[in-house]
Amino acid sequence: MALLFLFAAESYAAEPQRVLMLHAFNYTFPATTLIADGARKRLLERSPQPLEIDADFLDLARNTDAEYESRVAMFLLLKYGKRPPDVVITLGSAALPFVVRHRDNIAPNVPVVFTAISPQSYSALRLPPNITGIVSEFSLDKTLALAERLQPEATRLFVIAGSGQVDRRWQSVARRSVEDRERKFEVTYLFDRSHAKLMEEVENIPHDAIVLYLTFFADNGGRAFVPAEVAGSLAAVSPAPLYAPYDTYIGNGIVGGFVETFESVGVRAADMALQILAGRDPATIAPETNPGQSYRVDHRALARWKLQESRLPPDTVVLFKEPTIWSEHRGIVSAAILIVALQSLVVAALLIQRRRRLRAENLLKESEERMTFAAAAANIGLWQFDRHRNELWTTEHCRALFGLARDAPLTRDAFLSVVHPDDLQTATQSLQKSFETEQPAISDVRIVLPGGEVRWVRMRARSRSEGGSRPDHLGGIFIDITEQKSAEAEVALQRREVEHLMRVSVLGELSGSIAHEVNQPLTAILSNAQAALHLLAQDSPDLVEIRDALEDIVHEDNRAGEVIHRLRGLLKKGERNAENVNINDLVRSTISLLNSELIGRDINVRLDLENSAFFTRGDSVQLQQVLLNLVMNAMDAMASTPITQRSIFVSTRGDQAGMVDVRVKDQGHGIGPKENGHLFEPFYTTKDHGLGLGLPLCSTIIQAHQGKLNLINDEGGGAIAVFSLPIQQPEMGNA
To answer: Do residues 195 and 141 lie in contact, with contact meaning Cβ atoms separated by under 8 Å?
Structure first.
């Protein structure tokens, strides 16, 4: 019990934790993108356990109606309902109110870490105790103070904001900040304009004014915008300097402001999320403001509007500043000084040269030893072969890999002597090919160690020539791939087991139909046997009728035997041998096996088989399993189809590319948009009791037969399953 508990604990610990990032807007908004990048990097660096980080864009700036919110909430419920996240991180001011409104449906009781929320919005939301995060306290007063220091003679102030929900909150904040200042300006509020009108008014602003740009998520006509892009367009036409409280605007033409970097917001939010993932109660983590705020300005904007850098507040971060002459040419000056010093120390340099050469030789030797050690640690042997001298050089690990003694002479024949006799020709041809083509050759061969142990080795070889002559040297590596080969064999065995289980599962579903299919000939046999006995009991038995009864018994017995033979083939386990398979016969036998099930479901089957006999080389049981699964899927898809319309159309056609197409068309509901693209994913199913392994397994079987399987919707309704197989002429004696 203790061991089981430990194994269960290890399995639970290996399950990755999930973090969901909800962007308030779409991917074009740089602020939330920078927060997400900072948080993602921090989570992956600091998390002690595996993490799965998902992200969704709510796009709330362009879609503000309640119906859209409900659709998005329903989408998130369907996407994360079965595997809810452990923590939700909201990015952007509109994401947190959305989560609060729809949290009970999207992620009930899941802790939430918010970002980019103003103190006013945080106070108004009245959040539950398991929601915490970073409050962004933008200091508009300090941004105005920066503008006043750089433009002490300015008397006019223009404040710009859009008409979106976030824009209107900024409008009230800006009015309070401007009206409460000691220094009074002639203020003009450029609020609730169309984008074109705003651009026109900004072009006419006096050059000595201060322009304070806040946000512009939407204009008065409801058009959505990216605030950072609007900042760039305004700065391009404004005669006066622009200031703003957002770091993402810097670099788009504005001077700067008192800002916080959004990457630092993401880092702080990630730290809170990591505490919650580690087991800390989110109610004990108080919301906090980001301490990483500072004055940041664009040096290019200072130069454009002729603003003095000396007036900047202390510790201001100046970005995009061109290097000075000294810093730009420091390397040249240093090189000149170095040349003069070298001229003075030329004699000492000559004496030191010998020491350096010896040191380089030692380093080269150590490097070779490290390389050899690294190769041995990776279970790789290095080798090189000289064809003219018939000498083979290998590392010690390579000798051990082939079981060769240290004092044994290394030649090509010594190497080939330990290769398994069945792989000797493969190894020889691989070496010869490398000499002839000068292209890397890769082959897998078995070697037999002195103790009789057989191991797999991957041989990589490539020739090398000097001066364009015929290649004389061959080099490469030997890699021990025994474990890989064992794993591949184990995977193949498991796949065969899954194939068998899927066949048993399908036959289990058809058990009633199969019983009926077997019961019919048995009933006929009993009736004919009783009739024959009755005829024999007469004084003058009718031998003709008795013969007819006996012939019917033989016919029905063969019929029952054929059904049992097909069932035994499908239920049989083990290796399958490739054989010639007649595709048309395969279709007929499969439909015959499903005859009772089709009748029980009131489904009509139409066959359109091309007259030509199409043969392919493969496993008839596996191919019948594919066709059986596709027809069963077609029957299941028509469960809600009216009885008069239930029909399956199976056809075979050859094409000019040497392939035969087998099509199975139904009159069901078709493939839905959400299902499209996921049908071949393992464990994805649209059935209530499905395993989600049928179609992936069918695709694997068809690919193993050098074919392809595809599912499409029919224009007239229903779905079409089509698989293509290469046409091959039957081998003599096997047809």
So the answer is: no
Query: Crossing angle, helix 620-637 and helix 543-571, to 10 degrees?
Result: 90
Give Cα separations from 677 to 55, 138, 461, 681 (angstroms).
20, 45, 41, 8
Weakest mean pLDDT among 385-399, 465-479, 503-517: 503-517
Task: Look at 68 and 290; give whichever has higher pLDDT.
Answer: 68
**How much is the pLDDT for 516?**
52
Which residues partner with 617 through β-bridges? Answer: 580
Which H or E run includes 318?
strand 317-319
Rounded Cα gap, residues 287 and 228, in angstroms: 27
User: Which range, of 74-78, 123-127, 219-223, averages the lowest pLDDT?
Assistant: 123-127
Instruction: Give one word for 700, left, alpha or beta, with left for phi > 0 and alpha for psi -120 to 50.
Output: alpha
Among candidate residues 575, 601, 623, the one where a domain is terminated: 575
| Domain assignment present for 90 | yes
Q: Which pLDDT belongs to residue 573? A: 53
Q: Which two tokens stand for residue 25?
A: 């807007």
Q: Can you tell me whether residue 718 is helix, strand or coil? A: coil
Note the pLDDT tens digit of each residue in 667-708: 988 887 777 666 777 666 766 555 666 777 788 888 888 899
CATH number at residue 438: 3.30.450.20
Identity (one letter) of the amino acid at 132?
T
Query: How many C-beta neighbours within 10 Å does residue 577 have?
Result: 6
Is the predicted pLDDT of residue 439 greater than 70, yes or no? no
Q: What is the pLDDT of residue 556?
A: 63
Residue 735: the pLDDT is 42
Q: At residue 33, what is the residue type?
A: T
3-state secondary structure (DSSP) of residue 167: helix
Give the CATH number of the domain where residue 151 resides: 3.40.50.2300
Report yes or no: 257 and 243 within 8 Å, Cβ to Cβ.
yes
Q: Are 484 and 456 in contact (CB under 8 A)?
A: yes
In single-letter form, the type of residue at position 411 comes to: T
Residues 520 and 583: their CA atoms lie apart, in Å, by 27
Alpha carbons within 13 angstroms on the beta-carbon side of residue 417 total: 10
Work out the end-to-end distance of the chain between its first and last CA atoms, rounded to an integer number of angstroms.
58
Token pair, residue 95, equals 């994401």
- H/E stretch holding 685 reads none
The beta-strand segments (E) located in 449-533 are: 454-464, 473-480
- Asked if pLDDT for residue 498 goes beyond 60, the answer is no
Domain ends where: 303, 319, 335?
319
Neighbouring residues of 146: CB distance < 8 A, sequence distance ≥ 6: 243, 255, 256, 257, 258, 295, 297, 312, 313
Question: How many domains in the chain?
Answer: 5
Amino acid residing at 380: I
| Cα 52 from Cα 728, distance rounded (Å) | 47
User: How buried is 274 (Cβ within 10 angstroms: 0-12 exposed, 13-18 middle, 19+ buried)?
Assistant: buried
Going across the sheet that includes 131-135, the strands are 51-57, 17-23, 87-91, 112-117, 131-135, 288-289
Residues 27 and 98 grouped into a single domain: yes
**How far from chain centre, in Å, is Cα 684?**
16
Asked if residue 279 is part of any domain, the answer here is: no
Query: What is the extent of the structural domain holding 23?
Result: 16-135
Q: Which two tokens stand for residue 540?
A: 């003058």
What pLDDT sits at residue 734? 47
Contacts of 269 (CB under 8 A, 6+ apart): 35, 39, 89, 113, 114, 115, 133, 134
